[in-house]
Design a protein that fits this description.
Two copies of one chain form a homodimer. By secondary structure, chain A is mostly helical. Chain A contains 15 helices and two strands.
Chain lengths: ~300, ~300
Amino acid sequence: MLKQFLEQGREAADAALEQLLPPSTQHPTSIHQAMRHSVFAGGKRLRPILCMEAGRMIAAASGSPTGTLPAGIEQVGAALEMLHTYSLIHDDLPALDNDDLRRGRPTCHKAFGEAIAILAGDGLQTQAYEVLAQLACPPEARVAIIREIAHATGTIDGMIGGQVVDLEAEHKKPDLATLEYIHRSKTAALITASVVSGGMYAGANAKDIAHLRTYGQSIGLAFQIVDDVLDLTQTSEQLGKTAGKDAAAEKTTYPALFGIEESTRKADALVDQACTELEGYGDAASTLKNLARYLVERKK
Amino acid sequence: MLKQFLEQGREAADAALEQLLPPSTQHPTSIHQAMRHSVFAGGKRLRPILCMEAGRMIAAASGSPTGTLPAGIEQVGAALEMLHTYSLIHDDLPALDNDDLRRGRPTCHKAFGEAIAILAGDGLQTQAYEVLAQLACPPEARVAIIREIAHATGTIDGMIGGQVVDLEAEHKKPDLATLEYIHRSKTAALITASVVSGGMYAGANAKDIAHLRTYGQSIGLAFQIVDDVLDLTQTSEQLGKTAGKDAAAEKTTYPALFGIEESTRKADALVDQACTELEGYGDAASTLKNLARYLVERKK
């Protein structure tokens, strides 16, 4: 049931990305091919799925029939996926994580060279904002969504800030405050913004947004803890990316600090907390709750 | 007179940048120091100045006293400068132009390393959109400005597209269509968006925007032609960056195709065309006309 839901969500996100990314034949073709290489590399589309489902829940809470997606919300999801992919392309570069493999395929710079990879990442970020500026929701909601997403991917307590601290923490003794900053900023911030922006698209009020934000922060942190655990317990083949990289780089991770069992318990507790936050939405919240459980039970 | 105007514009842009960029002491400090290193490196703030002056002209045309800047417009200018600076940081990287010197100072990757330079460029792009989403103009104007600027810095016929074609054109026989694409996309597109977004901020109508767009395209192309000529005729010391780089890289430039004299004539004709476009605005357009002349007469 959830598997089918995830598959449908992935297809909706892929269709929106197909429509919103310039075609591979668009001049200059090298960069558009590079952008598509990395975007269409078999991602789970977790952020678009969370965004769409948050929008569906908020729409249901205000009387829309359950099961109806707010029209055009998949475009928010596509923009979120473009931003996520840009961060992966840049993180994989030789000057950063120096990864050759991503989701079982050559990374962008391996396939297209470093210059085009840097520019393809830049181009995905730019394209995301061009899409967000033209969403089908009212301009007030569009600027709120852009502000939310830009902040979540920014340098202070967003995605870029998390990546900076992650880089600077390599080969240093783990420290809980640093670890939490990295997890909250590098991964949880964009996951939170995915849920919050989906709600905003569907007309969420301030109270809804506060609930969605807490839900997002909890599942985002749980997601990253599970990611760190999988890096230790799964093979490269299972993950579709190089396993054991965190340990090799002496990265600060949850399992490095607390061990695998305690880390798993922490992730479970965060998911419980996320689900409690949505109690007030009744049945309309059941899919977001199932998604939260799925995040900690996944194997890659 | 124009010199004093340029100085005041630069100061207004600098003050807005100072306020809108995270302080150097903000955690994680390395990236905020890197962003500020490149933003506060003595730029002329040409894009903010054009943006503010276009806004002032449109405000004057709708009855505002000439000389009054629309309140808060310097924030649009600051965002434009952040985007311009991000493109310089990434263009200077070893995988792209591999430049050690920019405005007479070490480039971002020379001062902070490649990883932080890549992320500082990313962070400036992100910060620009966070600023634009919160401008003091109505949400309708904000989304129009974001769409305009994102497209102008994008991969199809914007800044990134121009950079891709520029890279791919090195060591190839010059070709006029390629050259014009590079100039229009890499430089003129953001200069055009600067003028257009300033007009939008001040409430320009569709006819105003069409005039500003043509003015911007003409001065943008003239600016790049003059830049190419200066690369050949000035020393590194005069320019504050490595001179003769285009010729060394066998880059396709206007002077390489047409010679210095014919290129200079072409730039002058474009400036005339830009000024003609603003005839209908009378005295209110005199500063934009002076700025157009300044662009072709400058020495760096």
